[in-house]
Amino acid sequence: MPHTVGQSTSRRGLAHVPWSCWFVPLLLLSLTACAVPARHAARSDLPPPAVAAEPGIPTQPTPLPSPTPQLTPALFAPLILKMTQSHYQLFVPVVLQAAQLTVPVVHEPLPFDPTLTTVRLVPVVEGLSEPTRVTGAGDGSGRLFVTERKGQIRVLRAGVLTPRAFLDLSVLIQTEGPEQGLLDIAFHPDYTHTGLFYVAYTDADNALVVARYRVSSDPDAADPSSSLILLRIPKPTEYHNGGHLVFGPDGYLYIGVGDGGIQGDPDRNAQSPRVLLGKILRIDVNAGSPYAIPPDNPFVNRAPYRPEIWALGLRNPWRFAFDPKTGDLYIGDVGQERYEEIDFQPYTSRGGENYGWNEMEGLHCYQPGCDPTLYVLPIAEYEHDSVCNAIIGGEVYRGEAEPALYGGYFFADACSGRLWSLTRTPAGAWTTTMLIERSPVISSFGTDDEGEVYVTALDVGGLYRLAAQPR
Questions:
Q1: Which of 244, 406, 419, 455 qualifies as a cystine partner to 412, CB 3.0-4.6 A?
Q2: Which residues, 6+ apart, have CB-to-CB distance to 299 below 8 Å?
Q3: Torsion of Cα atoms, 218 then 173 then 449 then 245, to 10°
Q4: Dist. CA 189–CA 175, nearest whole Å
Q5: pLDDT tens digits for 372-386?
C-alpha cells in the first residue's frame, strides 16, 4: 500500500518507503546548500597553507573553478515531474519548497574601467614616521600593521594608532641610507594559531636580514626575544635592498632582493646563479632549520644555482603582489637610467623566469647587442621624465567596499607622485592609465584582511585608502 501522509514509518523503516520520496528532497537540499556566492567561493578555493609542510605537496596556485550556477526550482522541475507520478505526487510540494531555499549567486563586479571611474586617496591616519609598508594580519581582528623605516611596527585599531609599538627593532637597524631601514612585515598564513610573523631590514653592515618573531600573550605586542634569523644576505652598498616579503597562495614565503646597488650591476649579480642578489626567493618556513627549500623550486639540484631562487634578472623588486583571485604575480622593478617596469608571472608558472636585468632595462637593451628573446619582457613600462623616478609595485583590488575598482592593478611612482592602473583587455593586451597626477611620496601599497587597498606616504607620514567615485 502506498505510504500516506500521517502514517507511521517507525516499524516499516525507510526501506519500505519509495526511494524517490526521500532521495529527491535530500538531493535538492544538498545541491541548494552548495550554491554559495561565486565571489566568496573563488576566495576560498586558494588552498590554505599547512602549518607543517609535507614533501611533495603541490605548491602552484590551483586554477579556480567556474562560478557555481544558481540552482532554481525550474532547473529540477522536469526531473521532479518525471519521478513523482502517481503515489509520489504528494511529495512534489515538499521538493519544490526545498528547492526554493537556494542561496542566490552574488555576481562579481565588472572589471575596473578607468574611463568610468575616478580614483582618490582617502586619509586614514597621520602621525606615522616614514611608513614603509601596511598589511593586515589575516586573523580577523581588523587591525592594520604599519612598518616605520627607523624600526617600529605600529598597530591601527579602528583607524586609531595604539600608543605602544607592536615591536621596536631600531637598535638592530641601519637607517643612514635613504633606502635602508625596516622594510617589510609578513604574517604567517596561519597567524591565528602560530603567532609567527616575519620582517625584513638592513643591518649595520648593509646586509639584508629576514627574521622571524612571535607575538606575546598581548595581541598588540610582539616578543622581542623570539627572534630567529632566517637569512642574512651581504650587499656591497646601502642601495637596492629589495626586502619585500609575501606569502604566496602555496603557503611559501617569497622574498625580493635587490642587485646590491652598484650602478649598472657591473658584477652581474642579477644574472649570477651563485648569489641571491637581484632575485625573488621562495622558501618553506614550516620545515627545516631555519627553513627548507620547496622541492619544486626551479633550480633544485641544478648547480651552481642557489636552490632558494624562484626568479632572477631583477634590479630592485620594490613590491610585488599576488592577485588574491587568480594567483598571478605582479612585480614592480625599479629601473636604472631610463625605464621603470612591471613584470608578470602567471599562476601556471613553475618559476625560473629571467626578467633580463642587467642585459635589459624594461623592453630595451641595456647592454649593447643584447638578445631580448632570452628573457621574459615586462608587461608595462614607463620612461623617466625627471631626475628621480622609482616605481612602487602595487596591488590587485579584490575588496568589496569599492566594486568599481575590482580587478584593477594599481601602482605608483615615488618621485613624481603619479598613480596608475594596469588592466588587461579580453584580447590579452595590457593598458596603463594615469589616475592621479600628483600624490604624496608613496612608499608602498598593501591590503587589509578584506582586500581593501592602502598606500603609505613616506614624506607626510600618512596612510591612505584607495577609493573610487564615478566620473
A1: 419
A2: 273, 305, 306, 307, 309, 352
A3: -130
A4: 29
A5: 999 999 999 999 987
